[in-house]
Amino acid sequence: MAVEEEGLRVFQSVKIKIGEAKNIPPYPGPNRMRDCYCTVNLDQEEVFRTKIIEKSLCPFYGEDFYCEIPRSFRHLSFYIFDRDVFRRDSSIGKVAVKKEDLQKYHGKDTWFPLQPVSADSEVQGKVHLELRLSEVITDSGVVCHKLATRVLECQGLPIVNGQCDPYAAVSLLGPSRSEAKKTKVKRRTNNPQFDEVFFFEVTRPLSYTKRQFDIEEEDVDKLALRVELWNASNLKFGDEFLGGVRVPLRVLGQAGVHEAWYFLQPRDNVGKSVKADELGSLRLNIIYTEDHVFPSEHYSPLRDLLLQSAHVEVCVLHVCEQVCPVSTSAAHILGEVCREKQEAAVPLVRLFLHYGKIVPFVSAIANAEVNRTQDPNTIFRGNSLTSKCIDETMKLAGMHYLQVTLKPIIDEICTDHKPCEIDPVKLKESENLDTNRENLRQYVDRIFNVITTSGVRCPTVMCDIFFSLRESAATRFQVDQDVRYTAVSSFIFLRFFAPAILSPNLFQLRPHHPDPCTSRTLTLISKTIQTLGSLAKSKSANFKESYMAAFYDYFNEQKYADAVKNFLDLISSSGKWDQKSIETPIMLKEGFMIKRAQGRNRFGMKNFKKRWFRLTNHEFTYHKTKGNAKGEGALCSIPIENILAVERLEEESFKMKNMFQVIQPERALYIQANNCVEARDWIDILTKVSQCNRKRLSTYHPSAYLNGHWLCCKVSADSAPGCTPCTGGVPANIQLDVDGDRETERIYSLFSTYMSKLVKMQEACGSKSVYDGPEQEEYSSFVIDDPQETYKTLKLIVAAVKTLEQQHTQYKRDKFRKTKYGSQEHPIGDNSFQCYIRQQSESSTYSI
């Protein structure tokens, strides 16, 4: 979800590697070990949870988490919890990284000391205040000052124990603190509207001008307004502190008026300080990205230049004259200047997929790489731009293919925990080597069979790319009859199926990294499958371990080789299949959520219940429990063709966050997800699977139908057409979640980062055009086949990048001039915006 800023969209995303914790304090008692898990939170909202690591004070997680951040936030937080024998969770410590500090740790493995978790420090939300100072003449003729404090509203207050009944307490701080004055309690809302005014008498004038007033400056500094937000509790422990602000009265200035938004802050004394590593520490690798995307027309020059990379003619079966090599294209140049090929591959693949040009682009760069390869045994073995682009294409286009092919057997392996260790050194005393070999062989056979019989389900875009690879390799190495197979198997087995088996959590096949025993089983399976699919001349020699070579002897090499070749022939064919005729139910997503009862009884109780939801490419169902979902008896089943729209539901409908609606012909199903990230994921995938429904709605009601009318438009008829345009359109291809402008913005950022390398490449082109000989070692790191054409492309790239750079600079200057510190978008206390203001002030000072 993008945040709109006057024609510019801001996208936030975070990729986190949760490594390990160390030196966790032991559990008090005879059993000193702990069962710990780690959560990822946006402020206090949990968006991810690792698996539990049992009986350890140095738990290793090794889990990856990626999400698009759908809202503003102040802290990215990580909590370590301990689960005891009664399944009660107690917090051990936390790491809270301020948003403005995320760039300090970008892409670095960092050990963070755990800090204590205190209720007074768990603060979020903001408050809107108005202060007005006026002179009042008393009956005795004495002039005094009265401070009128208006508490207007709050937004985003934390929800404590499932509820939020907030009120504000206002007091005047000074030489003597006034008694707190309280607003009314607002029930069941974390966005309360108070709009209440409180008056305080100020006995001393508020000015620093000593010639007018005989007071000390430190006395003036002590005068401040304190506003605290509390959650009214019915429990005997008292009300819970939600946050507060301290507003010094000197902000009133000469006008005597001040109105602003403030971020709530924790109490000044949030608990005793702890020594470094007293609670242990947590190793994290955080990559936070913020993309500022302009309207589409701003990207036309750079985008058109990039898309021309797919127009280079690929000559496979005949020789073409006067064709510019693909090395002169903007996309190839990006791959040359980036430090890591993966950096360039990700946005390039997404851009070309979005515009339906991925096959000609990949075919062009693959053909160029094949022509530079001297040995057919090394074809596509390096981490080149071609390899990374094909890897990324398979991940995007082949995720559902992986799920339907591998997920059932991977789930079974992770659930059954059958012993499969075949290394005699690692064998446990209770295990039998022959039994383990047989368990492993059965797993390998089953996975090999599901892979080699899945060819008809391979996505068309992957088949088209494999066909191009096969033809290029066969033309380049006509003597080697197997190269047309190895060119394809090096991707489908070595870079697609084998990695997915090895790390199923990275390919959305499992929610978490497997336990060590299961991980070892998957490693052995992955090694064997990789070798079976490689079609190498001497496969036993591929194994460094003697026990793996001995295990491989159990397989009939010719039988498996024939199955692999038949499979590769099928997926590298240029023919197309009717996907509907072979479509089988694929489990796409499942999990617990809360749904509102759909009972039609007008006077019936519309209650909310926790249910287990399952989505396949055929239907959307919910069940009473997770166990029911494995058999029959869904409480509700919605065919995909009956999903007319999937949209968010306004929070005010039921005073509940993270709600969305699945709109059917007769009524809507209202659902609450566990957090904002999960809500976004469900909406995205439900929208995706229902995109082809010809009956999709163009308008919808963003609020619920309650008390005889729609809350949004107040229309009384429950069948009234929607009042708001739907957000989901019908895509031209399967990559509906790809934003072409955002990917072009990312490519612009890469070109801008590596501008010095672009300049060096220009110099290399100039040098080669004058003299092209064997002594050109200074520029040997660049592939320049046609220096004149490459130079022309580089000139266009630099011009397009500089134009976008100027637009970004101008936008920042305009925003700096227009934005008010203390506004709703940038409340006082927003440290990241304070840093931004300081940077812009410095840049404005030195700008011409």
Walk me through the topology.
Blueprint: E1 3-5, E2 8-22, E3 36-42, E4 45-49, E5 60-69, E6 75-83, E7 89-98, E8 109-113, E9 126-137, E10 143-155, E11 166-173, E12 181-182, E13 193-202, H1 217-222, E14 224-231, E15 240-248, E16 257-263, E17 281-293, H2 300-307, H3 330-337, H4 341-354, H5 358-372, H6 385-397, H7 399-416, H8 433-452, H9 460-476, H10 483-502, H11 516-532, H12 546-552, H13 557-571, H14 579-582, E18 587-596, E19 608-616, E20 619-623, E21 636-639, E22 645-648, E23 659-663, E24 668-672, H15 676-689, E25 699-700, E26 705-706, E27 709-710, E28 724-725, H16 740-753, H17 755-770, H18 787-818, H19 831-846
Antiparallel strand pairs: 1-2, 2-5, 2-17, 3-4, 3-6, 6-7, 8-17, 9-10, 9-16, 10-13, 11-12, 11-14, 14-15, 18-19, 18-24, 19-20, 20-21, 22-23, 23-24, 25-28, 26-27
Helix pairs in contact: 3-4, 4-6, 4-16, 5-6, 5-9, 7-8, 8-11, 9-10, 10-11, 16-18, 17-18
What does this structure look like?
With 848 residues, this protein is of the alpha+beta class. Among the domains are: 3-116 and 280-289, C2 domain (Immunoglobulin-like, Sandwich); 126-263, C2 domain (Immunoglobulin-like, Sandwich), CATH 2.60.40.150; 398-578, GTPase Activation - p120GAP, domain 1, CATH 1.10.506.10; 587-722, Roll (PH-domain like). 32% of the residues lie in helices and 23% in strands. The strands form 7 sheets. The chain has a 7-stranded antiparallel sheet with strand order 21-20-19-18-24-23-22. Strands 1, 2, 5, 8 and 17 form a 5-stranded antiparallel sheet that branches. β3 and β4 (45-49) form a beta hairpin. α3 runs antiparallel to α4, α4 (341-354) packs antiparallel against α16 and α5 packs parallel to α9 (460-476). The longest helix has 32 residues, at 787-818. The two termini are 36 Å apart.
